[in-house]
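Q: For a teaching session next week I want to show students how multiple molecules come together into a single three-dimensional assembly. I've collected the sequence lines for a complex. Could you give me the predicted structure tokens for the whole thing so I can convert them for display?
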Amino acid sequence: MSGKLIMNALVMYDRQTDTLWSQFLNRGVKGPLTGTQLEILPSLQTTWEQWYQLHPDTQLLDKGGRYNTDSYEGYYRGGSAGIIGESNKDRRLPGKELVLGVNTEGLVKAYPFQTIVRQPLINDSISGKQVLVVFDPTSETGAIFDRNLEGRSLGFDILPETGDGISLMKDQETGSTWQLLTGRAISGELDGMALKRLPSFYAFWFAWSDFHPDTALYEAGVTAG
Amino acid sequence: MWLFGALAGKSGYIIAFLLIALVLAVFLLPQIRQSVLKLRSQQVTIALTPGQAGNSGDSLVSLDIITVLGKDGIPSIDNPRFVGPGEADQQMQSFERVLGVSINGDHRAYPLNMLSRHEIVNDTVGGVPVAVTW
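A: Of course. Below is the structure for the complete assembly, covering every listed component.
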């Protein structure tokens, strides 16, 4: 951790070359490895309960009897936008509204939590790219997938809750059953298949729009790309 | 009464001036803080992919890097230790948030309470070296 920020977001350094790296831009910004990109690996930001249900064989970073509170609790609830304020005041949403953002092949779009909490499955298209946006309201967990599977475009519908805490969906083409948050088919013709996760970001609107001033913003009921 | 008495005298002007200065300082503090941070910033120009930081083509973008803490002012976790699911469920409340990563069948959860204090965990998941950042 370099002690530096770009537009309120983490700047890291590596101990081998002392290059500065922007977390939000996932690339070197100063030093020998400037311009080098880090690959973004998909992750889920969720509750312990939800993660444990999805992956009963998970390991956990040992808390060692400490870390029972989050030092940023007040910041999450408060109105302040980082340390230096916003670079690009985009009033389409309140600054501290949470969004699920996706940036794939130069296509940038944000899905506000206030919308996806009511619409937890969206078969969307971003400039022609078929994407699936899912959200589990109980654990406030979102993920974005490519809904093209081996050249075939799939459309999805959410399934009623089964009571085991794992949200499910089915595809309209084969009726196979899938886990909503992992994008894995668990029964039916496509059993064992998995949708490709697209790198999605869980961010405050002010930070997302600072880094992506031209971002598209999903509006309820509007799925045209 | 003391304040009115003092204001009537010569030192009253000084006190009144200090009060005005104090009020001004409160209003100006955010701007002063911004300028101080600006002084401690460096500008870099880098090429970004389309869509990033307002870049619509292959053009270069200028960014301010601002110093707010010393290097390693927030210490990363470099030798992470893990517990299995049983012990993990003892350590965690059901509603506590985690960042979960799955690579090559290796599933690992990083409590946000820990990431907020360390910001970076250098780890290897499913054989892949990763930095878990927050």
